[in-house]
Structures are given as C-alpha cells and as structure tokens.
Amino acid sequence: MTEGRDPSEKLPLFVPMRGFEGAKAARAFRPSRGLPAAVAALALLGIGGLTAAHVVSALLGRPIRIVPYEDWARWARTTAWDDNRALAVAAALALIGLVLMLIAAVPGRGRMIALRTGDPDLMVGLPRRTLARALRARANAVDGVRAAGARMRGWHADVSVRTDLRDTAAIGERVRAAVGDELARLSPAHRVSLHVRVHGPT
Fold first, then answer.
1. What is the bridge-based pairing of β-strands 193-199 and 124-127?
2. Which residues lie below 8 Å from residue 21, measured CB to CB, with a gap of 6+?
3. Nearest residue to 13 (alpha-carbon basis) of 156, 157, 181
4. How confident is the model over 59-117, as pLDDT tens digits?
5. How many CB atoms lie within 10 A of CB 14?
6. Which residue numbers in the chain have pLDDT < 70?
C-alpha cells in the first residue's frame, strides 16, 4: 500500500496513466463508416457499369438503351442553366455531395467505450450495453431504490430509478454519488456526463 493513502479510498478499476488520452482513444475506437462507404461504392459501381454498357453497346452498333440517354441529353441541351429544373438537379447533387462529406468527416458513435488501463499502450473496450448494465446494477444497490434502469446515449448516461420513499431528492443524490463512483472506478477515457431521474411513489 502506498504511504499516506487512505485505506477507505476507492481506487479505479483501471488506473489512468499516460498513453491514450481522450482524442487518441476516440480515434482508436472510432467506428468505421462501412455501410455508407459500401452504399456509395455500389452506387458508383452501378453508374460506371451502366455507362460502360451503353458505350460498348453503342460502339458495337446495338445500343441497349437501359437508360434514356438521348432524352436526358436532349433535355440538357435545351435547358438553360438558370432554369428551375436545372437548379433543382444541381442543388440535389450538391446536397448529396455535402451529406457524403459530412458522413466521412464526422465520427460516428462506436459500440465500445474506451477505458484507461495501467498500461500506456493498452486500451480496454467495454460495450455500451455492458456499461449501462453496470451503472444500473450500481443504482439498484442504493438503499431505497426499488428498481433502476440505465441507458447510454452517446457520451451521456441516463439513469432512472423508482423508489417508495417520498424524499426523492435524497435518493437522487445517493444514486448520483454511487453511479459517479462506478464511472470513476471504470475510468472511461472520454468524460461521460450523468443524468439521474427519480420517480417517487404515485
């Protein structure tokens, strides 16, 4: 035991040390954009395949005409740039491009919560549902709590408890302290905010 440490002081489950800090942990556990990338790749593959099929079939003298290219080309030749329909098409394409850029730039919500460890080169990943169950179990262990529930919403933990006691404020403070201790023990790399709701007797 370290000299000068209070024996009753609770130590975190994983001791925070140097190494992966908040930003590095977020990058390490950032979810991949597999589904949007697959959809965009399939769309580009389909467009490229149709274009190649039309070009090859036209060169062979047997155009397949799956896409009404002649009608689209005629509309493009006869439509001015300031036409409302042309502006609507351009706006739709710009919006699609902007959405794709945002999907690529903004990190998604991962399924794992990064926890610090005593090893500077090691991070532990805890599923969000597992963390929510741990917080729910800790809230259920508080005296006066009849039932508790917990959910993870991004980096926010929502804990709701039911009690038969009328002093809901005191129950709420005890639950907040207990769940806060559990979060400190698990030591997530990213700060998790806590919101506690108490439902008293009806």
1. unpaired
2. 189
3. 181
4. 787 777 777 777 777 887 788 888 888 888 889 989 988 887 887 777 666 677 888 77
5. 20
6. 1-34, 107-110, 120-121
Q: Is the entire prediction scored with pTM above 0.70?
A: no
Alpha-helical regions (H) of 60-144: 69-78, 84-105, 128-140
Q: How many residues does the chain have?
A: 202
Encoding tokens for residue 192?
A: 């998790």
Tell me how far apart the alpha carbons of residues 10 and 181 are, in angstroms, rounded to a whole number: 8
**To which residue do tokens 């005890």 refer?**
174
Domains contained in the chain, CATH given: 34-105 (no CATH), 112-199 (3.30.70.1350)
The C-alpha atoms of residue 76 and residue 3 are separated, in whole angstroms, by 81
CB 201, CB 166: distance < 8 Å: yes
